[in-house]
Amino acid sequence: MDEAIRCTSEHEWVRAEEGFAVVGLTDYAQGELGDIVYVELPEIGARFEKGEVFGTIESVKSVSDIYSPISGEVHAVNHELEAHPELVNQDCYHAGWIVKLDMSDPSELDDLMTDAEYEEFISGGAEE
Amino acid sequence: MSETRSSSPADRAASWRVILDGEASPGFNMSLDQVIAECVAGGESPPTLRFYGWDRPAVSLGYHQSPEKVLDMAAVNAHALTVVKRPTGGRAVLHGDDLTYSVALPANGPWAVSVTEAYRMLSEALQRGFRRAGVEVTLARGHRGGLRPGPLPCFASTARHELVWNGRKLVGSAQRRLRGGLLQQGSIPLARGTIRLDELVPPGQRIEVEDRWATVEEAAGRPVDRLHLARELAHGFGEQFGVSLCFESPRIDETIAAQRITATP
User: Fold this and answer.
1) Does the N-terminal or the C-terminal CB of chain B have fewer CB atoms within 10 Å?
2) What are the structural domain ranges in chain A?
3) What is the dotted CATH code of the domain comprising B15-263?
4) Which residues, in sequence order, are bridge partners of residue A59?
5) What DSSP character marks residue B174?
6) Residues A43-80: pLDDT tens digits?
7) Helix (H, G, I), strand (E, B) or coil at A98
């Protein structure tokens, strides 16, 4: 896992990049969900509070909500996922990114789990 | 949401609620499943199984499907079908001659595993129920992957762990993962109706699907009463998960919430 990322208990990751927060699903999540067949992306410019649903993702006929790890405005979305949702499975931390947020409060990143904390969380050793 | 019961969900943790509903409108059916799932996920309602019918012929679409892309709307209108969107994923399902089920569970439980494993557990519960009703079904090996929400109907293909009889799909299911919970909905064709599934697929994309699915009547070799089957399936869940069953109705606040959603344009 990339040490620069922070994670949520709902299995999103976020990475600060050029002043924006890049968001995607963790490797654990994509593995548990199975083959991703559709990603519903938000509108550019839409605003989301931390913990709010910003999209949905479908795998094996199962639809799951995707929650915003931090508050902010959608700066960009990964349109590649419209034709190739499988990128979330193949390269969840890079080519399979989902949205880029213009953060309202970058300090919210500090509230999220580090990669080590997240690893402990998914192995059942911690509860958020 | 207000509590209308004296016992708390925690008191009834080892028992599941079973709702044997009659026929309702497509919109209300979907809204009530959604409301119940949210109440279960929020800890306000116990794990809930619901069985129901439809008061008019309808087609339900997966959450990510749009009618214009996956249905021949001329055929839909010619058959006076109501189109409704499910909160769950998957593809188009024709309702009217089926028994529909939904199971709403909290996030914590043996089903809190991968999507595929959750399908397996819930399918095994249904399999037990079918056995009680005298119908032997098997879990499909099927393909592991998901299907893009395209125009082919749900019953045109079988995913891993879905229930088949004689190699033909007998139950079509789909899930929704909520914060704190899980909703699975499924359709069980009881008998063949007058409308063919492939008639509803846009021209040019049609394939023969009628020999890919089966009905309970075909599997049992006799007509099977809808309510009897629902009860046996419920007991299959009870056996599978080692829980007792409380046959109840939706709470008033759940019904009101579902009616409000249904009435919202």
Assistant:
1) C
2) 6-122
3) 3.30.930.10
4) A36, A62
5) E
6) 999 999 999 999 999 998 899 999 999 999 999 999 99
7) coil
Contacts of B2 (CB under 8 A, 6+ apart): B253
- Spatial contact of B177 and A63, defined as CB atoms under 8 Å apart: yes
Handedness of CA A68, A69, A71, A72 (dihedral sign): negative
Do B116 and A56 lie within an 8 Å CB cutoff? no
Altogether, the residues listed in chain A come to a count of 128
Q: Which residues pair with B16 in a beta bridge?
A: B245
The answer to whether the CB atoms of B149 and A58 lie below 8 A apart is yes
Task: Pick from A38, A54, A63 the residue to mutate for testing the B interface (most B CBs within 10 Å).
Answer: A63
Q: Which helix (H) or strand (E) covers residue B218, if one does?
A: helix B216-220
Closest CA to B149 of B54, B28, B20, B63: B63
Q: How many CB atoms within 10 Å of residue A41?
A: 20
CB contact under 8 A, A60 and B173: no
User: A6-122: which CATH architecture?
Assistant: Beta Barrel (2.40)
Closest CA to A106 of A12, A17, A9, A11: A17
φ/ψ region of B143 (left if φ > 0, alpha if ψ in -120 to 50, else beta) reads beta
Count CB atoms within 10 A of the CB of residue B253: 16
Q: Among residues B236, B245, B227, which one has the least CA distance to residue B190? A: B227
Could you tell me if A90 lies within 8 Å of chain B, comparing CB atoms?
A: no
Mean pLDDT, to the nearest integer, of B65-81? 95
Cα separations (Å) of A50 from A34, A107, A128, B149?
26, 12, 15, 29
For residue B105, what are its two tokens?
A: 């569970």
Over the stretch B184-209, which tens digit does the pLDDT of each residue have? Answer: 999 999 999 889 888 899 988 888 88
CA atoms within 13 A on the CB side of B15: 13
CA B164/CA B125 separation, integer angstroms: 14
